[in-house]
Structure prediction request, 242 residues.
Amino acid sequence: MEEARTDTYRPGYELIAEQILQLIAESRLQPGDRMPTEKELAERLGASRTVVREAIKILSAVGRVRAQKGRGLYVADDEGMLGSSRWGGFFLPTDLDHVYMLFEFRRVQETAASKLAATRATPAELRAIESAAQLCEQGHLTDQTALFDRGDDEFHLGIATASHNPFLLAAVREARRLQRQSSTIGLHGALGSHAAEAITEHAAIYEAIRRGDPEAAAAAAGVHLDKTLEDYRREIQRRLFG
Prediction:
């Protein structure tokens, strides 16, 4: 096999990270199962060990692979609701069908969470949601991706917390974790062109929750998820087709 190709839109280590995930799924490896060594992966995937090592670092960072010094590589023990062994390695972060289904799932959960938050949020929870939206905006205005992501996470999880439904909170948290894997491996965590719109959409969701308008909150959350998916789809197409 040829060395992994490095494109302008996909560095070689990202391509190999995707192939390792496909290998895990095709081999039906379960959390805790031992994986091939770096050397074996390099030979099997036709890549250098350096590229494989970088791919493993990414997969370790997003919680899909665990490297044990002196013992080798293992499929990460993941007891999260969506990433648990019952999924059998189903979710592939760079499979567009999987990503679209994940957004579909997120839309159901987060519109419900926003609707409930509009009737249940406490003053302290409202302040936390507002602060998260402001943090997200600050990250966008200062071009700090990590700050934007932190604010975005805190915003969505803050709404789920304000729903006062622990099952919804768990679902939102796990779905966002899986999406983070997709963004990290497929888009290198790029903000995309939707960041500015996201700030406005966050404000609309927050205002509806603050007013105690459950239908408006659910509708605003639905618009936000739809626009986020559109941005993801555009960015993927741009990277694939230029």
In short: Strands lie at 65-68, 72-75. Confidence is low (pLDDT under 50) at residues 1-8, 83-88. DSSP finds nine helices and two strands in the chain. Residues 214-241 form the longest helix (28 residues).
